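Reagents: none. Just compute today. Dihydroorotase.
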Amino acid sequence: MRILIKNGRVIDPATKKDGRYDILIENETIIKVEPNLMDEADNVIDAEGLFVMPGFIDLHVHLREPGFEYKETIETGAKAAARGGYTTICPMPNTNPCIDSKEMVEFLMKKEKEESIVHIVPVGAVTDGQKGIKLADIKGMKQAGAKALSEDGKSVMDTSLYFQGMKLAAGEDMVILAHCEDKHLVGNGVLNQGKKAEELCLEGISNAVEDIIAARDIFLAKASGVKLHLCHCSTEDSVRLVKMAKEMGLLVSAEVCPHHFTLTEDDIFEDDSNYKMNPPLRTKTDREALKIGLRDGIMDVIATDHAPHSLEEKEKSIKDAPFGIVGLETAFALTMSELVKGGYLTPYEMVEKMSYNPARILGINKGSLAVGKMADITIADPDRTYVIDSSQFASKGKNTPFHNREVTGKVVMTMVSGTVVYKEGQNLI
Ligand SMILES: NC(=O)N[C@@H](CC(=O)O)C(=O)O
Ligand SMILES: [Zn+2]
Ligand SMILES: [Zn+2]
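Predicted 3D structure written out:
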């Protein structure tokens, strides 16, 4: 089987390409990337006017399986990923049971083979059951295929235990994906501490809740030598801390989520829990610092923190609903609309943050359109304007504050290992 993608704007930081090239794929593999290919193919895709990019890689999603299949399953989460242009996703281990053992990583990898239309890179918990009491079987999880460790949903508050875990992770060459939140300082906060929380008579979450743990984790990374990646950064001081860590020569990277670079607490007009996520929407000052951080290359990655919940759960008030919003099917459009059209990122830099850098941080052989690589490819129309409609999501989760928002930039095709898994206007395979 040969597929020829013609006339597209190929954007591939791995090979430093940004220009008009054709791509020839044979079975699972890219075999030629050159201008004006005339080779015979079984399927010719005309990508005139479209971006042709290495498939997006999401370092941060929640698939909810096992345990919370009513919110999302591996199958539905993978379909949402494909629709969003993602060819590889990293599900966080906060499931029930939690992904904290060799057997659970094996379970996930078996599920990937049987039920997922995109690649899955397993992330193991740092501690047993994410309880924060004793370390999980880090070596065993690595042997089974886990590439990263995370306690996402919370922080490991026992600094000594975390330090031990980091040293083990460093020895296994696993990256730590850190959720930074001081459990004691956060109290019962639900929205950013400030005027919106006051207006709605809700408890606030200060920036310090994040900043204190981000600073602690950076110094733990320095002491342990581990590769540290900060999840869902939301504050201006997180950006400052990441800049400092990089200046110190540490192996520190960081992600920003589309909701944090698009919205602020000022966008919350009523008690609508689709605006409730952890960390919370912050102020304009924080949002601008995140955008400048992305622009200046301090923040390396755009990740979704796709966190599906059921309609019943999210119909509750901000005080009572769970934290989290879906993101896989809106991330590209929001990135194009806010950062590329907004003048913060070039398309090339966007691809660095959505594919090339995530691959590099995980240490996986992806995020590249070089000859010989697996054909994981995303094709998108950068100029298409449309209105987001959550009822069209492949995800079970419809919990988004972006329903009815007009955006520009649409994924039209996603290819995983040489197979088209999503094509606009057609049902998902
Ligand atoms: N981000 C969220 O608001 N929620 C996440 C947990 C997390 O990412 O911390 C979830 O699992 O629902
Ligand atoms: Zn988190
Ligand atoms: Zn998360």
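The domain at 55-362 is CATH 3.20.20.140 (TIM Barrel).
Action item: order primers for follow-up constructs.
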